[in-house]
Design a protein that fits this description.
mainly beta; Immunoglobulin-like; 6-stranded antiparallel beta sheet; 4-stranded antiparallel beta sheet; 1 helix
């Protein structure tokens, strides 16, 4: 039976709204890079893993669409997904989570989307049908103007003391404006000067509670349709997350949801043995499972002997074999062109190598 990754295995779309981290990091943009090259950077940090790197969605509405290599089951009386972010005490940057089932079976996220209704979905302060448009600044390093369907407007302000890149508007986007639609939560942030706080919402939003908190877990049973009516989904294949708040917090800049992975809480990592380092590659979906002591290093070389990927084994599912702790990691190699590669896993324990296609 083919093993399934508990983590997302595909990046379909990345459309961040303007913000202080856009172009500079999460991911960084290099002059002339294409949209596909940006997606490849995301694949390298998000696919098949958790908490290994973060992706910024920018101001309100900025989103990402991710997919699993299998159907995530909706199990009764329990949560089904965990969304990893970088929230910590009083630093919530909530993102709305939507899910979709692959009804037509084509492997693409082109079926209906359903919002996982969080604690504030039915609040009078939440705007359900909100639309906001951002405009490319002129000059490029200016504040980014936005206008919404309520007749309001404002700016994503520069934060040059900490983020002085050429523009806060995504530079790989050719259009001079970007329009987003969805729900907008009322900001809970408060403060001024050097002291700002952004308390978490009760439940149901990404990057809202720390990753080890139950508030980072999600139940597919929370799904609602466009009219706010509950919808039963027996399983889902795709997840879309977007920044839920439009707010500037002084020197901290705009509220922007960050994502570092999504996990199916019902999928078990395959048993690779508990007594030694090992690798298992699934050529059918280009997924690599690695088990090794913490501090080991995975290296991937192409046919010319050039290093094309490297990662230190330092976070993941920890197994204890009674002698030492072994960390299990899962990687997607989809971001690499189809070819023959040499994989090398090494550490103070020794090394092992294998070729894959």
């Amino acid at each position: 039976m083919q093993a399934q990754s508990p983590f997302v295995s595909r990046v379909f779309e990345y459309c961040p709204a303007p913000g202080q981290f856009i172009n500079e990091a999460y991911p960084a943009y290099a002059s002339g890079e294409s949209y596909e090259e940006i997606l490849n950077k995301l694949r390298a940090v998000l696919l098949g893993r958790k908490e290994s790197g973060i992706v910024c969605l920018g101001s309100w509405g900025g989103y990402i669409v991710l997919g699993f290599d299998h159907a995530v089951q909706n199990k009764a009386d329990t949560v089904d997904l965990k969304v990893y972010g970088n929230a910590h005490n009083n630093s919530a940057e909530p993102g709305i989570v939507e899910v979709s089932k692959d009804l037509n079976g084509n492997g693409l996220p082109d079926d209906p989307w359903y919002e996982l209704a969080g604690s504030d979905y039915y609040s009078d302060s939440t705007i359900i049908n909100y639309v906001c448009t951002y405009y490319r600044p002129s000059p490029p390093d200016g504040d980014v103007l936005w206008k919404d369907n309520l007749g309001d407007s404002g700016y994503v302000r520069r934060n040059d003391a900490y983020h002085s890149q050429a523009s806060y508007y995504p530079l790989w986007v050719e259009a001079d404006s970007m329009t987003f639609a969805g729900s907008r939560l009322a900001s809970k942030a408060s403060g001024g000067g050097s002291s700002w706080i952004s308390p978490p919402y009760a439940w149901g939003y990404a990057d809202n509670w720390p990753n080890n908190h139950p508030g980072a877990d999600f139940d597919i049973d929370w799904a609602v349709d466009e009219q706010g009516q509950p919808v039963y989904l027996d399983e889902i294949h795709f997840v879309r997350i977007y920044t839920a708040v439009q707010e500037q917090l002084g020197w901290l800049g705009e509220v922007s949801t960050e994502i570092s992975g999504i996990e199916d809480l019902h999928t078990e990592i395959p048993d690779l043995g508990t007594d030694k380092a090992s690798m298992q590659y699934l050529s059918s979906n280009r997924q690599l499972y690695v088990q090794a002591p913490q501090g080991s290093r995975l290296e991937v070389f192409n046919m010319q002997g050039l290093l094309v990927f490297s990662d230190e084994i330092e976070a993941g599912t920890v197994l204890n074999n009674g002698i030492e702790e072994l960390v299990v990691m899962q990687y997607s190699l989809d971001f690499l062109p189809q070819n023959v590669y040499l994989l090398r896993l090494s550490g103070s324990w020794g090394s092992l190598s294998t070729g894959v296609r």
